[in-house]
Amino acid sequence: MERADFIHLVRLSEQASADDSRAYRRSVAGFAALGFAWVAGCFVLAVALLLWSLGAVVFGGIKGYHFVLLITAVGLLWASLRALWLRLEVPTGVTLTAADAPPLFEALERIRQKIKGPTIHKVLLDSSFNASITQIPRFGLIGGGSNYLTVGLPLLMAVDRPRCLAIMAHEYGHLRGNHGQFAAWIYRTRLSWMKLEHAMRHDGGPVAAASQAFFHWYFPRFLAKTFALARQDEFEADRIAGKLVGREIAGAALTEIAIKSEWLDTAFWPLHWSAAAHNPQPVGPFAAMRTLLAQPMTDDFARQSLREALIQLSNEDDTHPVLRDRLEALNVPKQLPGWSTRPALELLGSDCTKWITHFDNQWCRDNASDWKMHHAYLSRVQVGIDTLTASIRRNNADEMTQLGDLQRRLDPNANVLATYERALKLTPGHAGALRGLVECLPEREHRARLACLDQLFEKSVANRWWASRTAVQMLEKQATNGDGDDKTLKQWRERLREANEGEHRAWAELTETPFFDSITRHDLNDFEKGEFQSDMARCKPVTRAWLVRKTLKEFAYRRCYLLFVELPGMDDEDRYTLCRGLERTLDLPGQVLVLWAGHSPTLEDIQRKAFDAVYVRPVA
C-alpha cells in the first residue's frame, strides 16, 4: 500500500471515531474478525482436505493428486495453527515480589482498586527510562492474557512518587474496563499479525503465497483501521491518570520525563561513555545517574528541550500523541515543571541500592566489548591530538579545526578557543572554525558569538540553517531576560524562515525520493567513522548498520546521509521511536534519515544496494 493511501485510511478512521465512537469500535471489531475468519477458514479447509485425502488412502481409490492435496492440507493446517497460537515475547527484567518492594505493590493495589483494573500478574524491573504494561495471551490470539508491568530503574530515579504513580496509573489505564480490554486485545492482535506477517515473509509454496497475498492486503488496512483506537487509548489512559492523581501532577510528570529523557540521550550517555578514555574496563552508569537525575535540569537546557518537544507534531508513524497534544488534552499549562526533589526509588523499599549495584554490574557485562571498542577509538583520538599538537606550528586551518574538534570529542569541556582562533587567523571565514568557536564561547559573550554566526551565515551556505537557529535561540533567551534586540531578532528570524524552507525541501527530497537513488558509499574519515561506530555500539538494539551518502538537488554541495539499521525483536512503533531518536543524537557531518530493515526497505534490498555494513555488533 502506498503511504498516501495509508494516511487517507488513517484519516477516515479518525473521522469515523469522531462521528460515532461506538460504531467505529464495532467496525474495528468486525475488521479484526475478518482476519480471524481467514485463519479459521484456512483451518477448516485444511481439516476437510486432510480428512478427504486420508479417506482416499484408507478406503482405496487413491490417485496422485491426493498426495498433493495431503501435502497442501498439512501446510495449511500448520499455517493456521501457527497464526492462532502465535506467542508474543515475554518482557525481560528482574522479577519483583511484594517482599522485595512493599511500597510499590501497595501503591499498585490502590491504583487497581480505584480504577477497577485487572490483576498485575508479574512486576519487572529493568534498566530502561520507561514504564510499560504488556498482555501476553495464554493461548495464542485466543483466551485471556497475563499482565506484565515493567518499570525502569532510571524512571524511579528521575521523578518523585506522585509523578511516578501518575505514570503507573497511565499504564494501568490501558487495561481498565471493557473499553480497555478491547483496546488491549486489538493491540495484541496488531502485534500478532505483524509478527505473523514477518514470519511468513520467506515461506514458499502455494499455501504460503495465498496467506502472504491476504496479509499483504489486510495488514496495512488493519493498522490504519485501528490507528485512531490506539491513539484514543493513550489519551484515555492520560485522562485516568489525571483523574487519579490530579491533572497538574500527570502533566508535570509527562513534561519532566520528556526533558530528562532528552538529557539522558544528549548529555548523560555521551558524558558517561567519554569515561572510556581513561578506563579500559567498563564503568557502571546507574550510581552516577541516580545523583544527576535527582538534580534540577539547567534552565537553558530545560527550556530548549521543552521548546523542541512542543513543536513536534503527531503523525501516522506512531500511535502515541506528542507532548503538546497530551498536555492540551489534560488541559494543563505547557510550561516547565517544578523539579522532583525526592526520587520515587523509595517505592523499591529501604534497600534500593542493591538494584543499582545489580544493574551497574549487568550493564558492565553487557557492554564490555563495546566499551573496549570505544576505549580503542578514544585512544586513536588521543593519538590524532598528539600528532596535530606536535605539528601545530605547521598546521593549516583545516588541521587546526580538526585538532579543536578532536580535543572536544575527548573532553566536551576542553578549552580550545585559541585553537579555533588560530584557524581563523590562517583562513578568515573558515566555516568549521567559526562553528567550533560559537560552540566554545561563553554565553555571556553574546556579541562575539553573534558576530561569528553572522560570518558563518554569509560564508557558508551549508551552515545557514544551523547559524540561524543558534542565533534565534540566543536572541530569544536574551529577550526573555529583558535584554533583547528586536531588530536583530527579527532579521535572524527571517533568515531562519528562509533556511527552514530550504531544509524542508531537502528533507522532503530525502524522505520521498526512492531510498537507493543517487547514493554513494559514505565519505566519513577515520575519526568520524570511529565515532559513528561508537554511537552504534551504545545503541544496544542495533545489530548491523549501513551508512550511505545521498546527493540532493536542493543541497548538492552538502553532506546528507541515509542510515539503515537492523533492529531484530522490536515492534515497529519502538523501531520508529529509536530511529527518530538517532536522527536527533547522532553526531554525523550532515543531515541523516534513519530507516530500519522491514517492509520498505527490506533487509535484502539494503544488503544488495547499500554497500557494506559500516557497523556489525560483535557476537557475545
Description:
This protein has 620 residues and is an alpha+beta fold. Helix content is 63%, strand content 9%. Strands 5, 6, 7, 8 and 9 form a 5-stranded mixed sheet that branches. The chain has a 4-stranded mixed sheet with strand order 1-2-4-3. Helix 14 (368-390) runs antiparallel to helix 21. 33% of the residues are buried. The model has no long low-confidence stretch (mean pLDDT 86).
Helix content: 55-70%
Rounded to an integer, what's the Rg over CA atoms? 28 Å
Strand content: 5-15%
Largest sheet: 5 strands, mixed
Helix count equals: 23
Beta-strand segment tally = 9
| Category by helix and strand content | alpha+beta
Cα(first) to Cα(last) distance is 39 Å
Parts with pLDDT < 50 across at least 5 consecutive residues: none
- Specify the overall morphology: globular
Mean pLDDT score: 86
Quick synopsis:
The chain has 620 residues and is of the alpha+beta class. It is built from 23 helices and 9 strands. The model has no long low-confidence stretch (mean pLDDT 86).
Per-chain topology:
Layout: H1 3-19, H2 21-59, H3 64-84, E1 94-96, H4 102-115, E2 122-126, E3 131-139, E4 142-152, H5 153-158, H6 161-173, H7 177-199, H8 206-245, H9 247-274, H10 286-293, H11 299-310, H12 323-330, H13 353-366, H14 368-390, H15 397-410, H16 417-426, H17 431-440, H18 446-459, H19 464-480, H20 486-512, E5 519-521, H21 526-538, E6 544-550, E7 560-566, H22 572-585, E8 591-596, H23 603-609, E9 615-616
Parallel strand pairs: 2-4, 7-8
Antiparallel strand pairs: 1-2, 3-4, 5-6, 6-7, 6-9
Helix pairs in contact: 1-2, 1-8, 2-3, 2-8, 3-8, 4-6, 6-8, 6-9, 7-8, 8-9, 9-11, 9-12, 14-15, 14-21, 15-16, 16-17, 17-18, 18-19, 19-20
